[in-house]
Specification:
By secondary structure, this protein is of the alpha+beta class. The longest helix has 25 residues, at 405-429. It is 39% helix and 21% strand. The protein has 2 domains: 2-271, Nucleotidyltransferase, domain 5 (2-Layer Sandwich); 283-553, Nucleotidyltransferase, domain 5. Helix 17 crosses helix 18 (489-496). The chain has a 7-stranded mixed sheet, with helices on both faces. It has a 5-stranded mixed sheet with strand order 3-2-1-6-14, sandwiched between helices.
């Protein structure tokens, strides 16, 4: 028996065929989104804007699945008729305005060129003002709404984006019968659902991004939404009342899509989750196991049994029951840019090609911790955790006339590792157990230097997922459980997931130096992040120079 995992990332979609008995990956296919710049619709007048055309998702769905099945057919014993389930993960919060037939407005010729009628991609930060207002109003009137998301609502999330659309383009808002998260819309497409009210909404997206919780009856109440705008309160009736975890199905594969893809009709479709959450399942997440998915941005996911109370954690993106595994609280944190920072340095500043990454990595590997005298803040795309502030920007201290490209490249990597340590310390501070860390994503697999730096800075052994496609694998694992190939998620994870043989252990000597650098990082972090407005940073540059001279001696 086999399942199919479909992973919708920021720039492309990947389909993966997996054998249920042991997790063997029989075939995969990646399709890049054809529209915009690397699949993203941009506005040169507003760098905060990031949208995607929903039609790209449908093109990618058909091409990637057919491509993966074609590869799998070359494997002995594979038959598409034995595919028993499908799982889908996506970016998020990436809401889509849809009409009464569950059709994205952007597929209507009337709206196809309107950026506000497209999918509002997770990294869209146009809703900064609305997010701040939601945070302020919730703190005053419904503090429980934001207590589980670090007491700050983000411009990347559901209600901010809907409210911003209402403010800047009321015609699009009025034309939209409803809004559906990409993670919910794609399973509904496969199921042939043509009414937004019938779309099965996942608690992953609803809980982490839309202020949904059973504790207060689901979505925010109409009285609170009216404080934002009465039209948002009216919209609530056309959204949803109940959200579901991965123990429930999003539907069954409809005959039309079954024929189009070459799969059996009627097979179950797993509940949609975000890429990093299914990625956590694909990495074997369990209580005490933290999963880091490192890509253009990064996301940390952990779980804690829902059988006991859990503290609210300031600055953490969300604590949601059932968001990753049924029966567990899902805890999400992350950094708004990781790979995107390295890419910015190589392609925008250095004007290099992809091969320059390898060259700079080689040169940076020869450096010792602290010897460059540099210290950076990893805020080129704002700070998601622990400050939750998209209006923070990157910073580089310690440059001289002799600073090299490779030294800055390494400093940027170290900055993302310092940000990762800040997240780790915050979760541990509030009682979340972390006994080991498993990393996934292309960067974790391809850059041993980065992984060693992360181990040295965090003081934790870093393992790497056994699959290079952990998100798609996690979606396939969920489909396997839903289809009955395994009795529960722990059994499925034990059979279908693994870690790579090589791990990265902290180097005590490097760790000692990085502890000194981290203290300087926290001084700068807390000062510019607003945690310590009376900070005196006058010694930071001199301390960096002293450390530089000591390491070069």
């Amino acid at each position: 028996m086999f399942t199919l995992g479909i992973d919708y990332g920021t720039n492309s979609v990947r389909a993966l065929v997996v054998r249920c008995s042991d997790g063997k990956e029989l075939g995969s296919c990646v399709v890049n989104y054809p529209s915009g710049h690397q699949g993203i619709l941009l506005d040169p007048k507003d760098h905060n804007l990031a949208r995607q055309h929903p039609g790209d998702y449908l093109i990618g769905l058909e091409r990637s699945v057919k491509g993966a099945l074609a590869v799998a057919r070359k494997q002995r014993g594979f038959d598409a008729a034995r595919v028993i389930g499908v799982g889908v993960d996506t970016t998020g919060s990436s809401p889509i305005p849809v009409d009464a037939a569950n059709r994205p407005l952007a597929l209507d010729p009337k709206w196809k060129k309107n950026l506000n009628a497209q999918c509002w991609l997770w990294k869209d930060h146009t809703s900064i003002r609305e997010a701040a207002q939601i945070t302020a109003l919730a703190a005053q009137h419904r503090p429980q709404y934001i207590a589980k998301c670090g007491n700050t609502y983000s411009s990347e999330w559901f209600w901010s984006k809907l409210w911003h659309c209402l403010n800047v383009d009321p015609k699009v808002f009025k034309a939209a019968y409803s809004w559906v998260e990409l993670a919910d819309w794609l399973p509904s497409v496969l199921a042939g659902i043509t009414d937004p009210r019938q779309v099965q909404r996942g608690v992953c997206a609803a809980g982490h991004k839309a202020l949904y919780a059973e504790d207060w009856g689901g979505l925010p109440d109409k009285e609170f939404l009216t404080l934002l705008d009465p039209k948002l309160a009216d919209l609530r009736d056309r959204l949803f009342e109940k959200a579901h975890d991965a123990s429930e199905s999003a539907g069954q594969l409809c005959p039309a899509w079954a024929k189009k893809l070459g799969l059996p009709a009627g097979i179950p479709i797993a509940m949609g989750e975000f890429d990093v959450h299914y990625g956590a399942i694909g990495c074997g997440v369990a209580e005490g196991v933290l999963v880091k998915v490192i890509g253009t941005s990064s996301c940390d996911c952990g779980v804690v049994s829902a059988g006991k109370p859990i503290k609210d954690i300031p600055g953490i993106c969300g604590i949601v029951k059932g968001a990753i595994l049924p029966g567990f609280y899902g805890i999400e944190a992350g950094q708004s840019a990781v790979g995107d920072i390295f890419k910015w340095w190589v392609e925008v500043v250095c004007q290099g090609e992809g091969s320059l990454h390898a060259q700079l990595t080689k040169e940076a590997s020869a450096q010792r911790p602290g010897q460059s005298g540099l210290l950076a803040l990893d805020w080129n795309n704002g700070n998601r955790t622990i400050l939750v502030d998209p209006q923070l920007t990157g910073l580089l201290l310690g440059q001289t006339l002799y600073t090299t490209q490779a030294e800055i490249y390494r400093a940027l990597i170290e900055a993302t590792a310092f940000g990762a340590r800040a997240i780790l310390e915050r979760t541990k501070e509030y009682g979340v157990p972390v006994n080991r860390i498993v990393c996934a994503g292309g960067i974790a697999e391809k850059n041993p230097m980065l992984m060693q730096i992360y181990a040295d800075i965090t003081g934790c052994t870093m393992q790497v997922s056994g699959s290079s496609q952990a998100c798609a694998l996690g979606a396939a694992v969920s489909a396997a459980v839903l289809a009955g190939a395994h009795p529960d998620f722990p059994s499925a994870q034990k059979a279908m997931t693994s870690v790579a043989p090589k791990s990265y252990k902290p180097n005590a000597k490097a760790r000692k130096v990085y502890d000194q650098l981290y203290q300087l990082y926290r001084e700068v972090h807390d000062a510019f992040g607003g945690l310590n407005r009376s900070a005196d940073l006058s010694r930071v540059m001199k301390d960096l120079l002293a450390l530089k001279h000591a390491q070069r001696a």
